[in-house]
Amino acid sequence: MDNLSVMSIRVDHRTDSAPKMQEILTKNGDIIIGRFGIHDPGEVDHGLITLNLRGDMGRIRGMADSLEALDGIKVNHMQA
């Protein structure tokens, strides 16, 4: 069953983590129904991405685990 949920991704040291993180997000693009990214202009090395997701919870957990395995990435997930 497909579930709606929200995931936030805090990216520290964006220049180091961003390419691999983007690869994971692209691989899972079919379950991402919305994406919003911001960075703090006073803090160039940090960013926040919010994802709206629709998909199987096992797949969403797998994506979260892959992201968490990257240096400088923190993931929070909330099921709607």
C-alpha end-to-end distance: 14 Å
CATH class: Alpha Beta
What share of the residues does DSSP label as strand, in percent? 35-45%
Coarse shape = globular
Uncertain runs? none
- Tally of distinct domains: 1
Radius of gyration: 12 Å
Relative helix content: 25-40%
Number of strands: 4
The main sheet comes to: 4 strands, antiparallel
CATH architecture: 2-Layer Sandwich
Annotated CATH homologous superfamily: ACT-like. Chain A, domain 2
The H/E string reads EHEEHE
Structural class: alpha+beta
- The helix tally amounts to 2
CATH topology: Alpha-Beta Plaits
Mean pLDDT figure: 91
If strands are numbered along the chain, what order do they take across the biggest sheet?
Answer: 2-3-1-4
Pfam families: TM1266-like
InterPro entries: Acetolactate_synth/TF_NikR_C (IPR027271), ACT-like_dom_sf (IPR045865), FeFe-hyd_TM1266 (IPR023860)
Features:
alpha+beta, Acetolactate_synth/TF_NikR_C, ACT-like_dom_sf, Alpha-Beta Plaits, 2 helices, globular, 80 residues
Structure description:
Helices cover 32% and strands 44% of the residues. The chain contains 2 helices and 4 strands, in the order E-H-E-E-H-E. The protein is of the alpha+beta class. The chain has a single domain (3-79), classed as 2-Layer Sandwich (Alpha-Beta Plaits), CATH 3.30.70. The chain has a 4-stranded antiparallel sheet with strand order 2-3-1-4, covered by helices on one side. The protein starts with a strand and ends with a strand. Strand 2 (32-39) and strand 3 (46-55) form a beta hairpin. The chain has helices at 14-27, 57-68, and strands at residues 3-12, 32-39, 46-55, 73-79.
